[in-house]
From TrEMBL:
<dbReference type="Pfam" id="PF00724">
    <property type="entry name" value="Oxidored_FMN"/>
</dbReference>
<feature type="compositionally biased region" description="Basic and acidic residues">
    <location>
        <begin position="121"/>
        <end position="131"/>
    </location>
</feature>
<feature type="domain" description="NADH:flavin oxidoreductase/NADH oxidase N-terminal">
    <location>
        <begin position="10"/>
        <end position="100"/>
    </location>
</feature>
<dbReference type="InterPro" id="IPR001155">
    <property type="entry name" value="OxRdtase_FMN_N"/>
</dbReference>
<feature type="region of interest" description="Disordered">
    <location>
        <begin position="106"/>
        <end position="131"/>
    </location>
</feature>
<dbReference type="InterPro" id="IPR045247">
    <property type="entry name" value="Oye-like"/>
</dbReference>
<protein>
    <recommendedName>
        <fullName>NADH:flavin oxidoreductase/NADH oxidase N-terminal domain-containing protein</fullName>
    </recommendedName>
</protein>
<dbReference type="GO" id="GO:0016491">
    <property type="term" value="F:oxidoreductase activity"/>
</dbReference>
<dbReference type="GO" id="GO:0010181">
    <property type="term" value="F:FMN binding"/>
</dbReference>
Length: 158
């Protein structure tokens, strides 16, 4: 027996909010690629290819992206706190949008609530950021969101 794909709920649109409707219910989870420029931490051709190949998903959640110097954590990880970082992500977003016809628009909380951090192993060092430090990082993120090309998705007018 053959069932047309259109009959599967997985392939039907899903309204996530008033301003966001996914074209299908497939969500690509964040997978850290660690393939950004190791010196500048900018996205490059590998990210363009990787994310555009996955543009068929209803929602793509990018790999972890450091939004401040304090947030950077591993070799080859991308950052997004300078104009150069922002500009490096534009080709990625444009490649995905070219295949998917979407636009970006972000809603970010003004403050962050910090829970107590615990160590997994005694030899690990934890950052010494306090609530105010983390709140400042989030405020910085809010200011930088205009630089950000990777944001919540909204349908483009047809």
């Amino acid at each position: 027996m053959t069932v047309p794909l259109k009959d599967y709920t997985l392939f039907t649109p899903y309204k996530l909010s008033e301003s966001l409707e996914l074209k299908n219910r497939i969500v690509m989870s964040p997978l850290t690629r660690a393939r950004c420029d190791p010196v500048t931490h900018e996205a490059g051709p590998m990210q363009v290819e990787y994310y555009s190949q996955r543009a068929g998903a209803g929602l793509i959640i990018t790999e972890a992206v450091a939004i401040s110097v304090q947030g950077f954590g591993w070799y080859g990880a991308p950052c997004l706190y300078t104009e150069a970082h922002r500009d490096s992500w534009k080709p990625v977003v444009e490649a995905v949008h070219a295949k998917d016809n979407v636009e970006a628009d972000e809603q970010v909380p003004e403050e962050v609530s910090v829970s107590r951090l615990t160590k997994r192993r005694r030899e690990e060092e934890l950052p010494e950021e306090k609530h105010r430090d983390l709140a400042q990082i989030m405020r910085s993120y809010v200011k930088q969101r205009d630089l950000s090309a990777v944001t919540t998705l909204k349908r483009s007018p047809k």
